Amino acid sequence: MQLIECPWCGPREETEFHYGGQAHVAYPADPDALSDEDWAHYVFFRSNTKGRFAERWSHSAGCRRWFNAVRDTATYQFHSFYRVGEQRPATS
Ligand SMILES: [Zn+2]
């Protein structure tokens, strides 16, 4: 078991959290202009990065807030945690 650091609550066991998908996926600027295919890409298509990857996480059994984390998808090791709206840390 590893600890995940909620930006508001501090380190907690990973069982308190839920994965929320890729971070930094911007809502379309003009949603009425999107075709069905463009909507499908926005809703269903995500990067499948091997290595450090920015993700959304929810502290669902705690404060219930969303935040972002950089995690290595190959090792499952977390590298940084930051609040939504904050600058993404360097992931290299
Ligand atoms: Zn929390």
UniProtKB/TrEMBL annotation:
<dbReference type="InterPro" id="IPR006279">
    <property type="entry name" value="SoxD"/>
</dbReference>
<dbReference type="InterPro" id="IPR038561">
    <property type="entry name" value="SoxD_sf"/>
</dbReference>
<dbReference type="Pfam" id="PF04267">
    <property type="entry name" value="SoxD"/>
</dbReference>
<protein>
    <submittedName>
        <fullName>Sarcosine oxidase subunit delta</fullName>
    </submittedName>
</protein>
